[in-house]
């Protein structure tokens, strides 16, 4: 059984980390159910384990939190649906790569409910949207923007951290970092793409697609 939590107020980052760490420990010990937490943070940047200092281009703009999740710099803020997944990967196939692919597929299937085609790119973590309405890249390829970021950590085979989907954040807030260390591509959101989607719409889609991707817990 997976518990779903939806927070209506902005959640301070450290408060979220403390909750996730405690919950992951409890899940690993068999003392708590798995959990998916849907929330928003106040504006902030997080630095993952692969973050490079030059990629924080405006260090005084928002608070910066150093975190032990995988990945590089990421922005979180109002209008972005953060999805923290505290799931027992050990009982869901014991395969980290498969689990990350499931997270990617979950986002893709969720976006598909809004007739939006999310795609995966080799060497670029996250979910991407082709932008034929924008000028082509220097190499002549179709422009692409990132709509969702993914970064997890495991504790005794229980995941925490997770994904973030840009619903209607202030995209200018991403300019203080090089998102995920990638300079050649931009960032977009559902609303930026002209879709009148609310956070509640996204939550409904996430819940509907979850079981299709992750299935039942394997004891």
What does this molecule look like?
The chain has one domain: BirA Bifunctional Protein, domain 2 (2-Layer Sandwich). With 219 residues, the protein is α/β, with parallel strands linked by helices. It starts with a strand and ends in a 5-residue tail after the last helix. The strands form two sheets. Strands 1, 2, 6, 7, 8, 9, 10 and 11 form an eight-stranded mixed sheet that branches. Strands 4-3-5 form a three-stranded mixed sheet, with no helix packed on it. It is 22% helix and 28% strand. Helix 2 packs across helix 3. It has three helices and eleven strands; from the N terminus they run βαβββββαβββββα. Strand 1, helix 1 and strand 2 form a beta-alpha-beta unit. GO terms for molecular function: lipoyl(octanoyl) transferase activity. Pathway: Protein modification; protein lipoylation via endogenous pathway; protein N(6)-(lipoyl)lysine from octanoyl-[acyl-carrier-protein]: step 1/2. Pfam families: LplA-B_cat (PF21948).
Label this structure with key terms.
219 residues, 3 helices, alpha/beta, eight-stranded mixed beta sheet, globular, BirA Bifunctional Protein, domain 2, three-stranded mixed beta sheet
In short:
The chain has 219 residues and is an alpha/beta fold. It has helices at 13-28, 96-112, 199-214; strands spanning 2-6, 34-39, 44-47, 64-66, 73-76, 80-86, 119-121, 124-130, 144-155, 158-166, 186-187. The protein has one domain: BirA Bifunctional Protein, domain 2 (2-Layer Sandwich).
């Amino acid at each position: 059984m997976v518990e779903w939590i939806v927070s209506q107020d902005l959640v301070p980052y450290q408060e979220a980390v403390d909750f996730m760490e405690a919950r992951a420990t409890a899940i690993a010990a068999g003392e708590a159910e798995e959990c998916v937490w849907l929330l928003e943070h106040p504006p902030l940047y997080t630095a993952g384990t692969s973050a490079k200092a030059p990629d924080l281009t405006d260090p005084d703009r928002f608070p910066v939190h150093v975190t032990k999740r995988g990945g590089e710099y990421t922005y979180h803020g109002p209008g972005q649906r953060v999805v923290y997944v505290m799931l027992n990967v050990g009982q869901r196939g014991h395969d980290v790569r498969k689990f990350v692919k499931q997270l990617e597929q979950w986002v893709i299937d969720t976006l598909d409910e809004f007739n939006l085609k999310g795609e995966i790119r080799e060497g670029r973590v996250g979910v991407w949207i082709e932008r034929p309405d924008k000028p082509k890249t220097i190499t002549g390829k179709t422009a692409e923007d990132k709509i969702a970021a993914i970064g997890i950590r495991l504790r005794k085979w229980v995941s925490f951290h997770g994904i973030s989907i840009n619903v209607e954040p202030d995209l200018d807030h991403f300019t203080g970092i090089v998102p995920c260390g990638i300079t050649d591509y931009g960032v977009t959101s559902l609303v930026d793409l002209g879709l009148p989607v609310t956070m509640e719409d996204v939550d409904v889609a996430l819940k509907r697609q979850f079981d299709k991707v992750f299935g039942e817990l394997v004891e």
